[in-house]
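Budget justification, computational time. The allocation requested in the original proposal was used primarily to generate structure tokens for proteins on the priority list. As evidence of use, we reproduce two of the resulting records. The first is shown immediately below.
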Amino acid sequence: MKTGIVDVGGGMRDIYGAGVLDCCLAHGISFDLGIGVSAGSANLSSFFAGQKGRNYQFYIEYAFRKAYISAGNWLKTRNYVNLDYGYGTLSNSDGEYPLDFPAILSNPAEFQIVATNAVTGRPRYFDKTEMKQDDYGAVKASSCVPVANTAYLIDGIPYFDGGLSDPIPVQRALDLGCDRVVLILTRPKDFRRDPEKDRFAARVLRRKYPNAARVMSERAHTYNTELDAAMALEQQGKVLIVAPDEIEGMKTLTRDKEVMNRLYQKGIRDAHRIEAFLSDELQA
């Protein structure tokens, strides 16, 4: 049996996913494949590096620094979130909390990161072997929220958040040979995206990146369709959806330490379902 884990991201809400993954590390739960979207790519980077607690530090401490997320960043660079600070200055080998990149490479698990090509609107799946020490461009590209940030360039190609083009890449995990998949959501299972919420961003993108605008306008339909498919697979025993029952009003860039700590603890508690799911898999 090949097992996979998908973390869909969700900005600050994905401290919930950090809790899930820290619980997995604490209990020695491993996976053969991981696919990360947006903040989920950063979460899984620390997970596959074996760095329990690292993601928590980024959410609870570093995310509150003006150098990382602030209106000042926007005024200076048109990037509300300084991706180079989070996944460069802090994460590089000489940074405050380096990512153990050699550990990621030596980990036998496959690891892919989803970003959206801003020109074509199609998903790009970066493999961990395409990253280098102190060059985590794939994570930055996957986490680049349209409007809040300008497109992130890799080899001259602009990218946006992977959630535009493949927000719940369970099918990608199945296509890569997974028999069972753990899916981490950062909204309740009954949440469905409203297309009205994406219309403003689509209008902003349309002039420079018409295909990115198109997938942005279609994002609600894509998310809802992929979630419905995942729920059908859960009924078949092929997918386990781990999702918070309540997010207390948390949006992508909401920073509220009390709520974030509660989401992290929810993630730890909810992760205990994973061991039983994988045990059933081994018996199947």
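The second record produced under the same allocation is shown here.
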Amino acid sequence: MASASGTASGPVVAVLGLGEAGGAISAGLARAGAVVRGYDPAPVPVPEGVTRTGSEAEAAAGAALVLSVNSASAAHDALRAAVASVEPGAVWADLNTASPGAKRALAATAAEHGVSFADIAVMAPVPGRGLSVPMLACGPGAERTAQLLTPLGASVDTVEGDAGTAAERKLVRSVFFKGLAAAVVEALEAGRAAGCEDWLRENITGELARADASTVDRLVDGTRRHAVRRRAEMAAAAEMLDELGVVPAVSGASRDLLARLAADEQAGAGRESADGGRPGR
């Protein structure tokens, strides 16, 4: 068995989870010269150059780096099943999309067993990128993870902070990207029902193409300044979607957010007036 420092072929890396993401990453590691041992409880295909093992513990034994790429719901069970087999100096890196609290819980379990932990946030879709997908790492094992993966062709940026910091950055970014995607999907569904989907798609494409460094400030400032009027507009939009038979999930959430911002603004103006200041507009 190879030691945790690897062999002449490269470091020993265990990949737990050989689905779409784990399979692509493990294949990239093998092509780059790493000794890759993989485990997946499902009978999924094993990429060329990857050795299938019979358990998490078997995969992790002797590895310099263990990449957990199964799922957030399975991450803690996988860690508990294999942590006793992780050798001193090795790193357990969790690549699953999970809450910061879940990452901190994993780090605590790893620390109880003397295992260095890295919270890895995968910052783009893995298909088409594989091992080169941008990753953000934090926690006590972040630097070591970058040292092992970067020479193999991975793109790993480290950020200061305990486990959970990388997850926070990924998820706050997801609020925008996934929220934007949901808004586009809902809008086009409504456009289809209203008979103007092509016109709306062209309009959305034009707006996205014109976005620049000032767009975020304009969106934030305009939303707060015109919250009352825009709340009424989105209430009308949500009502229209109901009439079209489209569930106004994003439109209703936008209406409710604008209502909260308008209430906050009015409360702030009332406090200023009571203090003798001029109410804000």
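A brief technical remark on that second record: Confidence is low (pLDDT under 50) at residues 1-8.
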